[in-house]
Specification:
Blueprint lengths: L3 H4 L12 H12 L6 H14 L14 E9 L6 E6 L5 E2 L1 E4 L7 H13 L5 E2 L5 E7 L5 E11 L12 E7 L16 H10 L7
Parallel strand pairs: 1-7
Antiparallel strand pairs: 1-2, 1-4, 2-3, 2-8, 5-7, 6-7
Length: 205
């Protein structure tokens, strides 16, 4: 098998074609989504406007703002949520992060991030978002994360493994989340539990 890394130019995050498929997925996803709260509706509308700037909005170099994907992981019974104590800002938060050139869907990006950061194989995701949130970050000297959030279900007996990005991982009852808690994380609990009841969570496309 030829070494494709040598025979094919590497994708560059500022090349519009790099994120074209993911950008198209984001537009279709948000255009067809029914927001879970008034705040999520306002964030969806702002995010949809951002996407008009093109595929570059899917990558972290876009300083006016860029799309990220995150996931609230539930245990197999739906009675606990998995959060990480983030190493950079010292707060408990759901799993997630930046999109990568290999991502083709936002649900897939969220599932990848949740798998990488939890170390749990066999996670399942509901590809319908549970929230959209916009918050300031330090990327590129100051930017905005337009975070599209999903519900993810862990398999029975799942054992988490702490990644390099986290100080710790922990399972918590939805009504007893840890402190200090990142802003916007608590608002994911109700729509995530509703997603679990609505339909079986499944693998991302």
């Amino acid at each position: 098998m030829p070494d494709t890394a040598l025979t094919r130019p590497a994708a560059h995050p500022t090349d519009p074609e790099t994120y074209a498929a993911l950008h198209a997925d984001a537009i279709a996803l948000l255009d067809g989504w029914r927001p879970t709260s008034p705040a999520a509706a306002a964030a969806r509308d702002r995010t949809r406007t951002l996407l008009d700037a093109g595929p570059v909005t899917m990558s972290r170099p876009h300083r006016p703002g860029h799309i990220t994907a995150s996931a609230l992981v539930l245990d197999a019974t739906g009675s606990r949520v998995l959060l990480c104590l983030h190493g950079k800002f010292g707060r408990w938060v759901q799993l997630g992060g930046h999109c990568e050139p290999t991502d083709r869907t936002l649900a897939g990006a969220a599932l990848r991030e949740a798998t990488e950061e939890s170390g749990i194989a066999g996670l399942r995701i509901d590809p319908v978002p549970i929230d959209v949130d916009i918050h300031p970050v330090s990327c590129q000297g100051g930017s905005l994360h337009h975070d599209v959030r999903f519900a993810v279900l862990a398999p029975p007996g799942a054992v988490e493994q702490v990644s390099d990005e986290a100080e710790a991982l922990g399972w918590f009852p939805p009504d007893r989340l840890p402190e200090p808690l990142a802003g916007g994380t608590v608002q994911l609990v109700a729509p995530a539990l509703a997603a679990l009841k609505r339909s079986p969570l499944r693998l991302a496309p």
